[in-house]
Every structure is written in structure tokens, then in C-alpha cells.
Recover the amino acids of this structure.
């Protein structure tokens, strides 16, 4: 369902994020541009992930692929949460099947010298790519995004993805001064990256805190929330709605909203009804179909989609999404059918 207005600012997605009335529930999918699409795999052949994120022509093409195919209500800029870290000089790579791997993990005060401030000059390809995307998107909004300070810190401290975040938590509690200095720098980088995208023309931004569900609410509010607030505040003057998302964050939703979000992303482990009970009516919500249900028979999937649309209709604003990212083996035709179904059952 396309935006009947000529401006992304009047699109269903931006209006829902602002808790305004909409003609239908807007829908997009985290990781909608990616391995589930054959056209993505074809264009990425022989090109490393980081290189893909630095080539404006590739970024623009990959960003647009799911919009053309699925008719989603927003594009999200094709990138990765570690792109700004690499841009400021951190020695890392995105290893297929593993994720971001940092050559020298960060453990000491001396390591802080390896993280300078991010400026727009570090990421000229982002500004160029956004311009190319906007030229094709028209009235459909573009979402810019960045990794949140905690998740970036965990990658840097652990040296890569971690199940237990033991080095991260050891620093957080054992050397809180170093922890806050590190996260302060990462908040500047994350906020700066959001700002570059918003200034280039993104209509919405999302801060991903992929790993923050590993924390208690007390630890979150003490060690993380202040830095996420700084990152989100970097676009406060630009009048773009801010989405804040993490996984396994049922106990953290209200605290994540209070970090400065307009929309709180809800993963599939918490119902939108329960999320609303914790959030009140101060925020729109985003979510939250379990990505694994895209593999279920259509009758079961349709029932789940209808239920989420109905729950979301009771919130002050609702953006339909998955409760995490599209899995690589997902049938793209199923995603297209879900978009059509959401639009059909929510039209009003």
C-alpha cells in the first residue's frame, strides 16, 4: 500500500511513529534487505559485507530491493552496526557465519585512544547512498539506523559476538570509569551516525541494542540508559521519530522508552498487550511477529498476523514488524503476502 501523500513525513509509518491517525498499519521488516532475497545474493556475489556498505550504488540497490518486491511502507538503509566503528579506524571485519570480529579487543584505558569522534567526513558514502535512495523512494520513508552504545561496546570488549558478555560485564562493574568513558565515545559515534543519515534525508531513525537483553533493569538504567539517551538526542533537533529496539528486553521496555524513544520495538517474546501495559500510552510500539512463524502453514501465520494487528490497533501507534530480523531461509513470497495481509486487515 503506497503512501497517498507526496511526502515521507505524511506517510503511514511516520504518522504511526508520531502516534497520529493512519489509513493502515505500516509494515517493514528488520533485515528485509538481505539473504532471503535472491536478488540480494546475486548483487553481493564476491563483495565483502563491509565493502558492500561503503559502495553507494550497492547500498542504494540493496536498500530498494525489498521495497520493490514486497511493497513495504519503509526502506531501511543497508548497512551494519559496526560500519561507523570501521569508519573511525577500528580494525574489524564482518565474518560470514560469525558476525563482526574485532582484531584487538578493548580492555584498557589506553584502548580509548583507538576511538576518535565520528564526523560526516568519515562516512561520505552514507550521505551519497541516502541521496541515491531518496531519488527512487519518492514518498516512501527511509529509516536510518545505528548500533547502540552497549551492543557496540560488547563487540569491542569481547572481540566478537558473545553469549554471556563476561568481559563486558566485568568491565562494567569492575571499572565503571572506563566503561562510562568507552560508552561515552560510542554514544557520540552512534548519535553521529544517526545524525548523518537524518541530515541526508532519512525520515526515521532506529537505535539497535541487539544484546542489551543480557542485562538486569538496574544495570541497564545505571550503565546503559544514559549513553543511549545521548545517542538518541543527537537527532533531537531534526524532527525525526526515533525507534529503540533490542531483543529479550521485556523487562527493559519502559527504561528503553525513557532513553528518548518515540517508538519502542518489542521482540516476539513479549506480546504487544503486555508491552503496552509496561509502556503506557507515551510511546508507539513496533513489532512483533516471531520470524520463525514465517515458516508455518499460511493458516497459522495468518492467524498470528491478524492477532498482532488487532493488538497493535489498541496502542497509540503501531508499526508492524517482526520480533527480530528476517531469517535467511525465509521465502520472500511469504513476506510479500504478510505485507498485503497487514494492509488488508488494517485498512481504515
Amino acid at each position: 500500500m503506497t503512501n497517498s501523500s507526496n511526502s515521507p513525513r505524511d506517510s503511514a509509518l511516520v504518522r504511526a511513529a508520531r502516534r497520529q491517525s493512519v489509513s493502515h498499519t505500516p509494515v517493514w521488516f528488520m533485515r528485509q534487505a538481505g539473504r532471503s532475497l535472491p536478488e540480494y545474493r546475486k548483487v553481493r556475489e564476491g563483495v565483502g559485507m563491509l565493502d558492500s556498505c561503503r559502495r553507494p550504488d550497492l547500498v542504494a540497490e540493496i536498500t530498494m530491493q525489498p521495497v520493490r518486491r514486497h511493497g513495504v511502507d519503509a526502506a531501511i538503509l543497508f548497512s551494519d552496526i559496526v560500519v561507523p566503528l570501521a569508519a573511525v579506524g577500528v580494525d574489524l571485519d564482518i565474518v560470514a557465519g560469525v558476525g563482526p570480529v574485532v582484531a584487538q579487543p578493548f580492555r584498557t584505558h589506553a584502548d580509548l585512544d583507538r576511538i576518535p569522534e565520528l564526523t560526516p567526513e568519515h562516512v561520505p558514502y552514507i550521505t551519497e547512498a541516502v541521496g541515491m535512495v531518496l531519488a527512487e523512494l519518492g514518498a516512501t520513508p527511509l529509516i536510518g539506523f545505528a548500533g547502540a552504545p552497549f551492543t557496540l561496546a560488547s563487540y569491542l570488549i569481547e572481540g566478537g559476538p558473545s553469549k554471556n558478555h563476561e568481559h563486558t560485564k566485568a568491565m562494567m562493574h569492575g571499572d565503571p570509569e572506563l566503561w562510562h568513558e568507552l560508552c561515552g565515545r560510542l554514544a557520540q559515534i552512534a548519535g553521529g551516525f544517526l545524525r548523518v543519515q537524518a541530515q541526508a534525508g532519512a525520515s526515521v531513525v532506529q537505535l539497535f541494542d541487539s544484546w542489551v537483553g543480557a542485562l538486569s533493569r538496574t544495570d541497564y538504567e545505571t550503565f546503559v540508559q544514559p549513553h543511549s539517551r545521548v545517542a538518541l538526542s543527537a537527532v533531537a533537533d531534526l524532527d525525526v521519530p526515533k525507534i529503540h529496539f533490542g531483543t529479550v528486553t521485556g523487562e527493559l521496555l519502559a527504561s528503553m522508552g525513557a532513553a528518548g524513544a518515540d517508538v519502542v520495538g518489542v521482540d516476539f517474546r513479549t506480546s504487544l498487550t503486555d508491552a503496552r501495559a509496561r509502556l503506557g500510552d507515551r510511546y508507539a510500539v513496533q513489532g512483533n511477529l516471531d520470524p520463525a512463524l514465517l515458516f508455518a502453514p499460511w493458516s497459522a501465520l495468518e492467524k498470528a498476523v491478524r492477532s498482532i494487528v488487532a493488538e497493535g490497533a489498541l496502542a497509540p501507534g503501531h508499526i508492524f514488524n517482526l520480533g527480530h530480523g528476517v531469517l535467511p531461509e525465509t521465502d520472500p513470497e511469504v513476506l510479500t503476502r504478510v505485507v498485503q495481509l497487514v494492509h488488508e486487515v488494517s485498512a481504515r
The CA atoms of residues 293 and 301 lie 6 Å apart. The chain has one domain: 8-346. The radius of gyration is 19 Å.
